[in-house]
Write a structure and sequence with these properties.
Blueprint: H1 2-13, H2 15-30, H3 36-59, H4 63-86, H5 94-112, H6 124-138, H7 143-146, H8 149-174, H9 177-194, H10 199-226, H11 236-243, E1 251-258, H12 261-267, H13 270-286, E2 292-297, E3 300-306, H14 310-325, E4 329-332, E5 335-337, E6 341-347, H15 355-370, E7 377-379
Length: 380
């Protein structure tokens, strides 16, 4: 059942990159670009968007997307440089053959590289590694690859097939938009290599890869702004955007905090803590309520019960708290955990200027209770 659920999530996350891929492949097949002016336009647009995308995603710390765009742009410029030097015979050169091997290896390297290894800063060592590849390819010794070219070509196709199969399998298990963008961008880059003799096709396929990466990353950033990526509930940003709108005169607000969260983070892996958060949220959603859910902090959730007072909301909060306390959470094969949650509950008063006053009151009563005990609901 879990595998089927992940498969459905992967299909959903693939909608955007798959539609872009299908649309531009259809355009390239039935409306080929024949004008040199259009080719220059696509070339300039791709290079400009790639450079702007690298700068933009650097600012927003989406380093995985940033490095992927660097690989795409560098590969494209190297191919164009080879075409400029050798003309139609460029695909027979040793440099192009080496590039055909290195490109999928770079793509799968970035695909497998954890985001945390890139999030601190732009990795100077990876940039140097990519730059060294470009210098090597531009000055590649041709003589020692000539005799091995058929073998290396077959090896290259095996590498491409293995990389595409691996990305597809990983996408089916993760269901992430970033994995889908990597997969379809890799297919597009392969199309650029295969049909690279046609300058228009080369430009179109690499532009397609860049467009998939940029739009998917922008979609991911927008989703991450409004939704918590781990649990899928609304984020803190959504809390302030939605509560800034007109609110009913009557509502209750509850702050739910996972007890001993910092200690749990030191004991369990990040992947296990992610499973724990998802299981706790699933328990919130299973107990029927019309409350709006927000992940306000790493260990803290805010629930808003519109048109209900704190007595009505208390029943739900208590049912949820007891449900968590009475459950065992299976985080992995070797990790089974019992946790508790504590809650602070308040309701809107006439003197409250906005929802922030209600939130502060609920958090204050929760913090006072925390000094003495846990696994309890406190009402302000």
């Amino acid at each position: 059942m879990t595998f089927i659920k992940k498969m459905l999530l992967s299909v959903k996350s693939s909608y955007l990159p798959a539609l872009i891929f299908a649309a531009l492949v259809f355009y390239g097949a039935f409306f080929p670009v024949r004008s040199a002016d259009n080719n220059v336009f696509f070339h300039t647009t791709f290079v400009a968007l790639s450079v702007l995308g690298i700068l933009f995603f650097k600012i927003f710390r989406a380093y995985k997307t940033c490095f992927l765009l660097i690989v795409l742009l560098g590969t494209y410029l190297l191919l164009q440089s080879l075409k400029w030097q050798f003309g139609a015979q460029y695909q027979l050169t040793s440099a192009q053959l080496a590039l055909f091997v290195l490109c999928p290896l770079n793509l799968v390297f970035l695909f497998c590289l954890p985001q945390r290894m890139l999030s601190a800063s732009v990795r100077f060592d990876i940039l140097c590694f990519l730059l060294a590849q470009g210098i090597l390819l531009e000055n590649f010794p041709a003589h020692w690859l000539v005799s091995l070219s058929p073998l290396i070509l077959h090896l290259s196709w095996l590498i491409w097939s293995a990389v595409i199969a691996f990305m597809l399998l990983h996408l089916s298990l993760s269901g992430k938009l970033i994995d889908a963008s990597f997969f379809f961008a890799t297919l597009s880059v392969l199309g650029g290599f295969v049909y690279g003799e046609d300058s228009n096709a080369l430009c179109l396929y690499f532009a397609l890869a860049g467009l998939i990466v940029i739009l998917s990353a922008l979609s991911h950033l927008i989703y991450a702004y409004f939704r918590d990526e781990t649990t899928g509930v609304y984020s803190r940003n959504s809390f302030y955007r939605q509560t800034a709108k007109r609110f009913p005169l009557k509502y209750a607000l509850c702050v739910v905090c996972i007890d001993d969260y910092d200690r749990l983070c030191k004991i369990f892996k990040a992947s296990e803590m992610k499973v724990l958060l998802q299981l706790i949220v699933s328990k919130m959603l299973k107990i029927g309520t019309k409350a709006s859910f927000y992940r306000y902090a790493e260990d803290e959730f805010v629930l808003i019960f519109k048109n209900e007072d704190k007595k009505q909301a208390l029943q739900y909060v208590e049912d949820f708290r007891r449900s968590v306390a009475g459950s065992e959470f299976v985080l992995s094969k070797n990790s089974v955990l019992k946790v508790t949650v504590s809650a602070g509950l308040s309701e809107k008063k006439r003197s409250d200027a906005n929802v922030q006053a209600v939130l502060d009151r609920a958090r204050e009563v929760l913090q006072k209770t925390y000094k003495f005990t846990q696994n309890i609901t406190s009402v302000a």
